[in-house]
Amino acid sequence: MWGAIFPGQGSQVPGMGKFLYQEFALARQIFEEASDSLSLDFKKLCFDGSEADLALTENTQPCLLLVSTATYRVLNAELGFTPQLAAGHSIGEYAAVVAAEALAFADGMRAVRRRGQAMQSAVPVGHGGMCAVVGLTPEQVFELCRWAETASGQTPVQPANINAPGQIVISGKKSLLDWIPGNFKADMFANSPRVKFIALKVSAPFHCSMMKPAEDQMAAVLGDLQFSSAKFPIVQNVNAEAVRDGNQLRANLIKQISAPVRWIECVQNMRSRGVTKNIEVGCGKVLAGLVKKIDSEGLRTFNINSLEDFKSVENELKGA
What we know:
Elements: E1 2-6, H1 18-23, H2 25-38, H3 42-48, H4 51-55, H5 57-79, E2 85-88, H6 92-99, H7 105-122, E3 128-134, H8 138-152, E4 157-164, E5 167-173, H9 174-183, E6 196-199, H10 212-223, E7 234-235, E8 242-243, H11 246-256, H12 263-272, E9 277-280, H13 286-294, E10 300-303, H14 307-319
Parallel strand pairs: 1-2, 1-9, 9-10
Antiparallel strand pairs: 3-5, 3-6, 4-5, 7-8
C-alpha cells in the first residue's frame, strides 16, 4: 500500500523543482498558475533565489506548496499515482490537502502566503526561537518544558515538532530557550543518553502558543475558502488521525499553527493502516530520514529530486 508524504519548512533549496519544469509541460503550467495567483515570478524565486530569499517564511511556504503540487500532479498524470493515505509535515499538510483536491491550488497558494506572513509577524524578531533536543523521548521533552517554565519563571516553551525518536524540536521565548542548556543537568532523566541542544536558524517560534495571533488570522483566511471532501484520507499533524471531511481538514489546519507537529504518530498511523511504501512528494529528503528513524523495517520512502529518481519510482510502481 502506497502513501504520500509532503515536506515542510527546512526542505527548500535553490533550484527546487527545476528538473520538473524542464522535463514536463504540466509542471510548467503549474509554475505559471502559481505566479499568476500571487503576481510573483516563482520560476525565478525557486531556481535563482538565494538561500536567504527562500528562507523567508512568506517565500518558503508557497515555494514548498508549488513544488510539491507540481511533483504530485506529474506523478499522477504520468504514472497514475494516487496514494491510499497521505500526510504532510507542517506546511506540507497544505500540499496534501491540495493533492487530495480538498482545496484549490490557487486558493492554497494565497493561503500559505498569508500564513507565512502571519507567522512571521506574530512575534517580534528575536523574541522567540526554536531548538532541537537530541537524546530525549517525547515524554521526557514534555517534562523538560514543564521543568524549564517552573524553574526559570518564564513562559512559554513547548514541544513543537515531534519528528522522530530522539529528535524533537521545542519552541518558545528566546530567553528561555537560551536558559535551558546552561541549567539542564545530565542526571535529570534516568536512562537517557547525552542530551544535546541545537539552536535552529529560524525567524519565529513556530508551532507553539506564541503563534496564537497567526492562528486567529488564518481562521479568518481559511474560513473564506471552499474545502471539499478529500479524495484520499490525510493523517493530520494536530491529532495524527486520518481525515477526509473538508470542514475538519480546515479546522485542523487552523489549530496546527500553534500546536505541535506529531510526526512520529502520523507515520505510525499510516503504517498501522497498511502503508509500506511512501513517496516524499516534493523537494529534498528530510522526511525520508525521519521515516527511517521511526520505522526502518516496515516502511520504504522514495524521493523525487531528479529525473533518475522519477524513473526509479516509475519502475517501483510498475512492479507493485
